[in-house]
Every structure is written in structure tokens, then in C-alpha cells.
Design a protein that fits this description.
alpha/beta, UDP-n-acetylglucosamine1-carboxyvinyl-transferase, Chain, 4-stranded mixed beta sheet, globular, binds shikimate-3-phosphate
Length: 442
């Protein structure tokens, strides 16, 4: 379904964006590998996470959605214990979700079962070798695969997984998490070393479920994470904070739309996820934090965001892991800024739900903005306003659709996107929530 965003008056009000996608996947997976019950409140009920829930059920866990005592929704997972997954009857279908698919590959690699993995056209085009390589070192076997390690593929887990020391070739929490999840079934210590620290939700949640995980600095920006294998994971209570990657859309929309003043509650502020907030503040954004607190190791805060005059800046490459999903919407902010914004070191954007480096450039060009790709860098010429008027192709990528609609909130002429269906993978309420804040989408 297409949708058009027109220039709106101002955005005002208070919202809570849905639960964090990364934490939601992990809560389901660790709940499924734990003994006893895990109760999850605030789970993101987007298609990506629902596919992980189905996969956990297919692998033998009992997953239920229930109303809790207060009338809210809580998800309950009764796990099978570390290494206890059962052979699923049918291929596990992860839809659009790289995270669900790759983390579950790690979990399956530590169990003596065979499972087939599949996904939609976008996921089938994404590289899985980066996950399969370390899992093979741990003893898992790839029984069949498509096109150089792509989906559909069948993985056989190791009967006796080996603990390994693995240096990730790219800063990727998905690779790190897959190795750690497989390492749960290995005797001894599994170690992952990353040159640049990626999001650490797996480590934090493993500790919350009772595993012994040690994470230390390694080099200027890296980390070394060691997990002691074969822990007894105990079901735990998890409250999922609001997703900073989803909050990014109303935040940028409010910054670029004159007169806006919005409040977002419970936004997760783990420093390995908040590169966008740092960058926007450097550009001159008014984003105030209050009510900071911590739940299950994850920090969160209330954010008040007011329309701001932004200026172009240079974003260093080492910041990329902490804002890897936010460059599309940052590109929109950069287009409304005065001056040039240079975003460096974006090679990983090419293997996301779509090639987001090309997509960012195409989206801005559709809006009449001057933009250039130079190697791995994206250079946006901000002129303080955006002409708009174009049609943006979403390429099965939720974040392209939402970023383009944000651009249309403040551009001179409307911006249209060809298909909003994929927004449901991560932020099912995006359109009505933005409309409640004052966006003009039709
Ligand atoms: C995620 C890690 C990131 C990110 C994705 C979620 C995670 O991918 O882009 O949306 O939950 O671990 P990479 O680890 O491949 O960078």
C-alpha cells in the first residue's frame, strides 16, 4: 500500500514507541533456552519478533501471549533448557528478520538437531556466511545452502560443540550473539573479540538469566566477551524498554518540523545504541533526558525533543555500530540541516534489509536533495529545507518507508512511498502514532 506525507503544522504530545526489537528477540530466545518460565512485558509485537516467537515454539518451547493482572499483555515462554531444542517439523520462516534468523542459527548450532531456515526476498538476499563460518568452527554442519551461504539453508547443530575464540570480521552483534548462543552448549569458555563494540544486549541478558559472561575492553574501541558454557539458565522476568531505533523516527520528525515539542517515554539509552542521539546533539538538536532508570541491566530515560535548527557535521566511522540502523533517518535530518554532513564508514549498510547506502541516496534525490556516495561515505548537502515532491521506493525495507515519511513531514511538497507494508516488521503503530502527534499522512 502506498502512502503520502504532507508538510504538517507541528508535532506535539507524548508517546511510547514499541518495545526494543533486539531485546525482544533475545528475551524469546533465552526464555526458550532457559529452565522454567520467562515473563516478558512490553515485547515488540512486530512481524520480525512474532516470527522468532513461532520459531521458538517450533523448536519445542511453549510460547503464550496472555493478559496480565493489570490488563496489560505479557508473553510467557517455558524453555527447554540449554541444548534442548527439538527438530522442527517444517522450515523456520524468519520473514524479513536478519536478527531472528541469525541468532536462532547460533542457538540451533549448539543442539543436536537439524533445522531449515528461510525468509522473504530481502532476507534471502542477505549474507549468512558470516554466521555459518564460526558455527562450523564450533562443529555445526551446513547440510544445504543457496548461492554462497544464503537462505534457504539447512543447518545441523553440533552434538558436542567446541568452545572457540572468535574475532568477528565486522562489528556485528548478530555474529557475536550467534557464537555466544552456540557457546551456551559448549564445555569451557567461548570468547568473541570485536574490534569495535557492537550492541551488548545478549551479554546483559545472558547475565540476567544466570550465565557467567565477562566483557572487557580490547583495543581502542573493541571488546572481548567470554562466556562460560553449559550454564543453567533460569527463566527470568524481562521488561522491554522502548526501542531507540523506532524512537529515531518521531525524534527526527519533531526536530525538522517547526514548533514541535514531543515527549517519548522509557526509551532505552544503552550507549551502544545511542550514536544517533549523540550525532543529532552535535548537529544542534534539543533532546533532553529525564527520569533515567535501569531495568535488567538496560538503562532508559524519558526524552523531550523540540524543533531545532540543525547544522551539518562529520560523523566518524567508529560511531557506526552504535547507530547502524539510524543512518537513513539521519540522512533526512542532514538534508534539513544547514551545511554538509559527511557520514563515514558505512559499508555494512549495503547488507541490511536493502542496500541502505544506495537507498539513502535515492530517497534524498527523490526529495530534491543533493547527495553523493564516495566509497563507503555518504555526503548530504543540507540547505535548511527540502523541496520534496518525489516517490520513494521502499525495497522491502521498513526503515526506508518510515524515513521517507518523516522527510515528508517537513518538506515543501509531499513525499510519497510506494509500499508501507514492511513497517509492520518493526513498528506496527507507526502511522497512527505519528498521526496522533500531528503528522499529515494520507
Ligand atoms: C541487531 C544487530 C545489527 C542491527 C540489527 C539488529 C541485533 O545488525 O542492524 O537491526 O539485534 O543484534 P548487525 O549485527 O549485523 O550489525
Amino acid at each position: 500500500m502506498p502512502l503520502e506525507a504532507r508538510k504538517c503544522q507541528s508535532l506535539t504530545g507524548r508517546v511510547r514507541v514499541p518495545g526494543d526489537k533486539s531485546i525482544s528477540h533475545r528475551a524469546l530466545i533465552l526464555g526458550a533456552l532457559a529452565v522454567g518460565e520467562t515473563r516478558i512485558s512490553g515485547l515488540l509485537e512486530g512481524e520480525d519478533v512474532l516470527n522468532t516467537a513461532k520459531a521458538m515454539q517450533a523448536l519445542g518451547a511453549k510460547v503464550e501471549r496472555r493478559a496480565d493482572d493489570t490488563g496489560g499483555i505479557a508473553w510467557s515462554v517455558r524453555g527447554v533448557g540449554t541444548g534442548g531444542f527439538a527438530t522442527p517439523e517444517a522450515p523456520l520462516d524468519f520473514g524479513n528478520s536478519g536478527t531472528g534468523c541469525r541468532l536462532v542459527m547460533g542457538a540451533v548450532a549448539g543442539c543436536p538437531i537439524r533445522a531449515a531456515f528461510d525468509g522473504d526476498g530481502s532476507l534471502r538476499s542477505r549474507p549468512m556466511r558470516r554466521i555459518l563460518d564460526p558455527l562450523e568452527l564450533m562443529g555445526a554442519r551446513v547440510i544445504s545452502q543457496s548461492d554462497g551461504g544464503r537462505l534457504p539453508l539447512t543447518l545441523e547443530g553440533a552434538r558436542d560443540p567446541l568452545p572457540i575464540v572468535y574475532r568477528t570480521p565486522v562489528a556485528s552483534a548478530q555474529i557475536k550473539s550467534a557464537v555466544l548462543l552456540a557457546g551456551l552448549s559448549a564445555p569451557g569458555v567461548t570468547t568473541v573479540i570485536e574490534r569495535e563494540a557492537s550492541r551488548d544486549h545478549t551479554e546483559l541478558m545472558l547475565k540476567h538469566f544466570g550465565a557467567d559472561v565477562i566483557s572487557v575492553a580490547d583495543g581502542a574501541h573493541g571488546r572481548k566477551i567470554s562466556l562460560t558454557g553449559q550454564p543453567e539458565l533460569h527463566g527470568a522476568a524481562v521488561t522491554v524498554p522502548a526501542d531507540p531505533s523506532s524512537a529515531a523516527f518521531p525524534i527526527v520528525a519533531a526536530l525538522i518540523t517547526e514548533g514541535s515539542d514531543i515527549v517519548l517515554s522509557d526509551v532505552m539509552t544503552n550507549p551502544l545504541r545511542t550514536g544517533l542521539f549523540v550525532t543529532l546533539r552535535e548537529m544542534g538538536a534539543s533532546i533532553e533526558e529525564s527520569e533515567t532508570r535501569r531495568d535488567a541491566g538496560e538503562p532508559m530515560a524519558q526524552l523531550r525533543v523540540r524543533a531545532s535548527k540543525l547544522r551539518g557535521i562529520e560523523v566518524p566511522p567508529e560511531r557506526a555500530p552504535s547507530m547502524i540502523d539510524e543512518y537513513l533517518v539521519l540522512a533526512v535530518a542532514a538534508a534539513f540541516a544547514e551545511g554538509t554532513t559527511v557520514m563515514r564508514g558505512l559499508h555494512e549498510l549495503r547488507v541490511k534489509e536493502s542496500d541502505r547506502l544506495e537507498a539513502a541516496a535515492a530517497m534524498l534525490r527523490a526529495g530534491g536533495v543533493a547527495v553523493e556516495i564516495a566509497g563507503d561515505d555518504l555526503i548530504v548537502e543540507g540547505r535548511g529545507h527540502v523541496p520534496g515532491g518525489g516517490l520513494v521506493t521502499t525495497h522491502m525495507d521498513h526503515r526506508i518507508a518510515m524515513s521517507a515519511l518523516v522527510m515528508g513531514c517537513a518538506s515543501d511538497a509531499p513525499v510519497k512511498v510506494d509500499d508501507i507494508a514492511f513497517i509492520a516488521t518493526s513498528f506496527p503503530d507507526f502511522v497512527p502514532m505519528m498521526q496522533r502527534l500531528g503528522a499529515d499522512f494520507a
